[in-house]
Design goal:
single chain, six-stranded parallel β-sheet, binds thiamine diphosphate, binds magnesium ion
């Protein structure tokens, strides 16, 4: 067997370069390059290998957390068909990736993490930044990646790469299992040479499958749908990743079943489609939530049923409600005690469509959905046109950005009060036009995520909407966007702190404690002094961004217009009134309230809570034996 002598790091990079994926007509390299920050844990290993392989592009970042957000956002924008590798030193550089690894795994997005690790040889331990444990030498901080990775390995010998790398690829390209994959790379082993089989580095194409569901379950599902009088589709991220949005629209049009969207699924339907009910759940529209409450059958497609979707298991109140779940991941398909159609969204929808030939929910049901759609659009217009303040309302800011964005442009966000408002209010006109990281809702994802999305599709403007709190957590990738020449338009909403949690705190009786950006007051000893004067414009300018300060709606509209003419990252700052909120519609979220307290408002909130929680339901299997099948099976046995 011909071999080639390489360091393990060189072998890893050479392998990654040669991995391709294929789905339908699409075929391309799986890795777009490697992000990294170097230290003693990778400088002579992966860094050296990258240096001698310029075709596998190295990208520099400011923070290891950010680079994994960039990779995850890139993968999300690419429908999981391409991503990046991410290399770090050992110790803090490595553990900075734990948070975004969890984010990628929760959001089912592929990212390959290559943290440096302590010496496998051990002789020189403890090396700088090594965590020592009296009970074992076989442990390092990289063990922290185990619960947040879908595949985890530590390569203590160079030949272990030969078996680990294909496993990493299997998981990364699996539509059901994908997430963060961690290969911990001891510093000394990275630099160690080995005679690798040349075959390891051959061009390899991983076909991303479109598995079909079990035929018997599919016909059972079709029966359930045919017998249903009030069905509802919930479209999750899986619809978009599978590129099944066209099939979904056709299915909805054929059957007359209306569609509600989760955060990851928003964009599955155009916002103005008469069968589009818009956002589902806690941050949902009245149309989606009323339809869900009454539904006798819920068809969940590519959804994880997070509590924001299920309204903490209060969304579906029809006593007879049943679920059919279409999901490529068996784990998700079985949720809500559903009839599981374990399969790809696109092909399963096509098969269901033929099984449902002739079925229609009827004119009245269709017309009702269309009315919900129109009424909701009028409510969006009302909120966009509030003419509040100044400071203006956040809803007006969203309206201005939506009006400025072209249909294919992208709005991107992750945490704070914006995700809920965007879920409700953003008029999505393109499948990839709405990018929310709301699986982990990780403050700080916004700017690096924006960069990842922009890199994945530079033909679109990316509008990053970010709160002042999230901005202060992670703004530094503005520098990277300037370095790489990818333009972002960042709309920085200053409402002096954590408005979302402030509102939540009020709703649990705690009056917004700890959520304002204020000086410590010398008399009260609390953080209720004057407002902290943070100069966001100067801050963004110092990182290299072009900055426009807007003060009211007309100047915001002007700023958005001016930003279009800019070629470099542009930050628009705008102050909003944190108390002018977009309300909730027909929904509830379970946030447990203190059962005992000395504060009257908390006691009141608790008694309201005890009322609301009564609506939470368990969904238990409704698989009563079908008599006919049961009897014939018996006959068959006899
Ligand atoms: C990393 C991280 N820490 C804490 C939280 C909890 N949290 C959710 S929203 C939020 C406040 C966000 O503030 P800001 O970005 O200003 O948005 P606003 O709430 O004002 O809309 C916090 C602390 C989180 N989601 N992520
Ligand atoms: Mg804020």
């Amino acid at each position: 067997m011909p071999t080639i002598r390489l360091t393990m790091a060189q072998a890893i990079i050479r392998f990654l370069q040669n991995q391709f994926v294929k789905r339908d007509e699409y075929e391309a390299p799986f890795f777009a390059g490697c992000w990294g920050i170097f230290g003693h844990g990778n400088v002579a290993g992966i860094a050296q290998a990258l240096q001698q392989t310029p075709e596998f592009r190295y990208y520099q970042t400011r923070n290891e957390q950010a680079m994994v957000h960039i990779a995850a956002a890139y993968a999300k924008m690419k429908n999981r068909l391409q991503t990046f590798a991410c290399t770090t030193s050992i110790g803090p550089g490595a553990t900075n990736m734990v948070t975004p690894a969890a984010g990628a795994t929760i959001n089912r997005l592929p990212v390959l993490l290559l943290p440096g690790d302590i010496f496998a040889r051990r002789h020189v331990a403890p090396v700088l930044q090594q965590l020592e444990m009296p009970y074992s030498q076989d442990i390092s901080v990289n063990d922290c990646f185990k619960p947040v990775s879908r595949y985890w390995d530590r390569l203590n010998r160079p030949e272990q790469a030969i078996s680990a790398l294909p496993e990493a690829m299997r998981v990364l390209t699996s539509p059901a299992d994908t997430g963060a994959v961690t290969l911990a790379l001891p510093q000394d082993v990275q630099a160690e040479a080995y005679d690798y089989p040349e075959e390891l580095f051959e061009h390899r194409v991983w076909t991303i499958p479109r598995p079909r569901p079990d035929a018997a379950l599919l016909s059972r599902a079709a029966e359930w749908i045919r017998s249903s009088r009030k069905p509802l589709i919930i479209a999750g991220g899986g619809v978009i990743y599978s590129q099944a949005t066209g099939a979904l629209r056709e299915f909805a049009e054929q059957t007359g079943i209306p569609v509600a969207e989760t955060q990851a699924g928003k964009g599955s339907m155009p916002y103005d489609h008469p069968l589009s009910l818009g956002a589902m759940g806690v941050t949902g529209t009245p149309g989606a939530n009323i339809t869900a409450r009454e539904a006798d059958l819920v068809i969940g497609i590519g959804t994880r049923y997070s509590d924001f979707t299920s309204a903490s298991k209060t969304a579906f109140q029809n006593a007879a409600v049943r679920f059919v779940n279409v999901n490529v991941a068996e784990f998700d398909a079985y949720k809500q005690a559903a009839l599981p159609l374990v399969g790809d969204a696109l092909v399963t929808l096509q098969e269901l469509a033929s099984a449902l030939e002739g079925y229609d929910t009827g004119e009245t049901y269709r017309a009702r959905a269309a009315r919900f759609n129109r009424e909701w659009d009028a409510e969006v217009s009302r909120i966009y046109g509030l003419e509040h303040g100044p400071p203006i309302s956040q809803g007006e800011v969203i309206g201005a950005v939506n009006a400025a964005a072209r249909p294919r442009d992208v709005v991107l966000c992750a945490a704070g009060s914006l995700p809920g408002d965007l879920h409700k209010l953003w008029r999505t006109r393109d499948t990839k036009g709405y990018h929310l990281e709301y699986g982990y809702s990780c403050m700080g994802y916004e700017i690096p995520g924006g960069l990842g999305a922009k890199m994945a599709d530079p033909s679109r403007e990316v509008y990053v909407m970010v709160g002042d709190g999230s901005y202060l957590m992670m703004a530094q990738e503005i520098v990277t966007s300037i370095q790489e020449g990818y333009k972002l338009t960042v709309i920085l909403i200053n409402n002096y702190g954590f408005a979302s949690i402030g509102g939540l705190s009020q709703s649990v009786g705690s009056g917004g404690f700890g959520t304002h950006y204020r000086y410590r007051h010398p008399e009260t000893g609390q953080l209720d002094g004057e407002r902290l004067p943070v100069d966001f414009a100067a801050n963004a300018r110092s990182l290299g961004a072009h900055v426009i300060e807007a003060a009211d709606l007309p100047s915001l509209v002007e700023a958005l217009k001016a930003a279009k003419g800019q070629t470099e990252t542009t930050v628009i700052t705008i102050e909003t009134d944190r108390e002018q909120r977009v309300p909730g519609y027909e929904s509830w979220w379970d946030v447990a309230v203190a059962e005992v307290s000395e504060i009257e408002s908390v006691r009141q909130a608790r008694s309201d809570y005890e009322e609301s929680i009564k609506k939470e339901r368990y969904y238990l299997p409704k698989f009563r034996p079908n008599k006919r099948t049961y009897t014939s099976a018996k006959v068959g046995l006899a």
